[in-house]
């Protein structure tokens, strides 16, 4: 089966990373009643964690790049769970967690890195509801973590 979305990404020079294995007691995705719930995906690129804190040692642009990396990992987890990105009917909601100082307020701008990449990947089906919150710390010291709810087309 041809994965039309992944083929379009390759034409744009975008490739998905290998879906990351869980690092604790959870599964990466659960499908129920046509919804795929993706566990939080941490910022990672080229097999390396993207760590740091916004408002301290990371710039807005670095935070956005970390969020983009989360979007690619979400897509990789969707493909692993469903076999094809073409199964996505709609990205319903993203929850974006930004490792930041107490006075940092650009969480929505950081989260745009993920949101914009999701729309690049899925087009109109990538338009989603979202929350973006700052947190005092994230697992493994990562800069950003994103979870997702995805509506699927019937198999």
From TrEMBL:
Protein name per UniProt: Enamine deaminase RidA, house cleaning of reactive enamine intermediates, YjgF/YER057c/UK114 family
InterPro entries membership: Endoribo_LPSP/chorism_mut-like (IPR013813), RutC-like_sf (IPR035959)
Start and end residues of each Endoribonuclease L-PSP/chorismate mutase-like domain: 7-141
Source species, domain of life: Bacteria
